[in-house]
Amino acid sequence: MTTVLHLEAVSRRFGERQVLQDVTFDVVAGRMTGFVGANGAGKTTTMRIILGVLAADAGTVTWQGTPLTRAVRRGFGYMPEERGLYPKMTVRDQLIYLSRLHGLGPGTAKRNAEALIERLSLGERAGDPLENLSLGNQQRAQIAAALVHEPEVLVLDEPFSGLDPLAVDTVVAVLRERTARGVPVLFSSHQLDVVERLCDDLVIIAGGQIRAAGPRQHLRESYAQPRYTLHVDGDAGWLRDELGVSLVDLDGPRAVFDLAGDADDQTILRNALSRGPVRSFGPVTPSLAEIFREVTR
Amino acid sequence: MNTSAATRLVAGRELKVKLRDKTFVFSTLFFLLFAVGATVLPAMFGGGPSSVAVADESLAPKLREAGLKVRVVADPERLVRDGDVDAAVVAGPQVLAMTDAPGDVVRALSTEPEVRLLDPDAVEPVVGFLVAFVFAMVFFFTSLTFGLQIAQSVTEEKQTRMVEILVAAVPVRALLAGKVLAGGILALAQVALIALVTIVGAQLTDGGSDLLPVLAPALVWFVPFFVFGFVMLAALWAAVGALVNRQEDIGGASTPVQLVVMLPFFAVIFLRDNALVMTIMSYVPFSSPTAMPVRLFDGDAAGWEPFVSLAVLAISAAVTLAAGARLYEGSLLRTNGRTSWASAWRDREMQRL
């Protein structure tokens, strides 16, 4: 059995507003699950319910098959959307304090803190109060705070916002180390290109409802339209007269087109070759942004 | 990890932060210096027996007997004028001094009539007022300053959103208990340190040796009253801190709490002579921490009275702590604007988790 964090029909309303409606998805151990949705779609509420900072009106969250209790959640790592650490406490002290609060002994807490400080290149600033650090370094400290107690599940709300590209790479590498050890990681992001590059699985939420969930590659294939791109040496205008082809875009030797259900892509390719050299030909896989637009429409 | 272990960790952090806080350290040092100054300095400047010069050898034994330093010289007046001695006794007998009449010299030469006190246990009015003032002051200042610090520490966690990480890790009650515990320990330690320095200073300079035995019973009662009274107010301060989102808003939100601290303070000082009011106040939870020890010091309270009053206070503290915890839980995670007391009371989100 794979170990999963499983949400089953989780619902929540704030007053008159239904914020989450029957939210069901899995976060599988050892995989990075990207959590994508517009502002107000319900990402943060979902994460807060997983962490037990908010209650669900209905539905359950289970980890390895058992419903979450405070003791189980203490083994989770959480990075809230709104950042917060003690401004006047040193980075090292807060990391040690937080891992102690999560139940680690003083020795392990100190070792973990030092290791993460080193790993996230915070060494020089570890003895400084947090408020004296640059925003980027504060963000790294925040990530360290979520990781310092060796959590068995990671829930990160917008972990990459405010990080420069180099820092994103460092953080991603650290997160990959965790997934390699079998930790499931759920992270939300507005930056679809970052999600596209990082996630193994994808959950798309809109209006409090899950619109799509599953392995990224799977989603791309299932949302792929019968769309192709062709690059020849001459003009590609002849495609207009091919049976079953509707042109999406034509720019001299380059064309993007959809094929009707019964048309054969190989026939088109042969016709193209008979007219001259073909530089490229293939199906167009939709980008995450396109899938996102498609499912949230 | 259970709630008590989490409470200890939270309290440990609060203590560490406070002990490194320069404002706290300097204010404690200032209070200590003040205590030393108030007890030691008057003795140093006003201190010591007077030195006295006489021309007539026969007066010397009587003065020496009174513990004075006696010099026999030909021209005593010149020594007084030169400042070599405090006073001189010349024929008459007449006492010479520069500006103030030297009481000890005068007493040594006079015969005092026998005094019979009809109420020997009664406290001098001035001393009685001072004791009431000190008790009220200590309770007022510590519950105000340490209470405010508890509120600030709660608000800091809300303002920086630290609270969301904390709530995900430990029970909310452990956060509250840790803060109240740390505040209580610091308050009690600071007061005890200042009291110790004052008493030692008074003992060394012989100033308080008469007062201490009289003060002791009231002092022994003051400690438990102080502890329960502090916990009661601290719970309210923590609730105030949770209601607001910014440090600047604590002042406004804490007005009701400030009132229940301030009103008893002035009432105990100004209505001390009104026996009926003092009796009532010694049972009302917010004023009993000062009113009861004062009545004990004045000898107005029967032996059973402090027990009943303390029981009332302890129950009130428990009730207030529960109410404060409910308000704290109901407002801690509400980060949009200031939460009203009523909506904090009604919010039962935490109970559903």
Automatic annotation (TrEMBL), chain B:
<dbReference type="InterPro" id="IPR013525">
    <property type="entry name" value="ABC2_TM"/>
</dbReference>
<keyword id="KW-0472">Membrane</keyword>
<feature type="transmembrane region" description="Helical">
    <location>
        <begin position="221"/>
        <end position="245"/>
    </location>
</feature>
<keyword id="KW-1133">Transmembrane helix</keyword>
<feature type="transmembrane region" description="Helical">
    <location>
        <begin position="306"/>
        <end position="328"/>
    </location>
</feature>
<dbReference type="Pfam" id="PF12698">
    <property type="entry name" value="ABC2_membrane_3"/>
</dbReference>
<feature type="transmembrane region" description="Helical">
    <location>
        <begin position="23"/>
        <end position="45"/>
    </location>
</feature>
<feature type="transmembrane region" description="Helical">
    <location>
        <begin position="257"/>
        <end position="286"/>
    </location>
</feature>
<protein>
    <submittedName>
        <fullName>ABC transporter permease</fullName>
    </submittedName>
</protein>
<keyword id="KW-0812">Transmembrane</keyword>
<feature type="domain" description="ABC-2 type transporter transmembrane">
    <location>
        <begin position="131"/>
        <end position="325"/>
    </location>
</feature>
<dbReference type="GO" id="GO:0016020">
    <property type="term" value="C:membrane"/>
</dbReference>
<dbReference type="GO" id="GO:0140359">
    <property type="term" value="F:ABC-type transporter activity"/>
</dbReference>
<feature type="transmembrane region" description="Helical">
    <location>
        <begin position="126"/>
        <end position="151"/>
    </location>
</feature>
<feature type="transmembrane region" description="Helical">
    <location>
        <begin position="180"/>
        <end position="201"/>
    </location>
</feature>
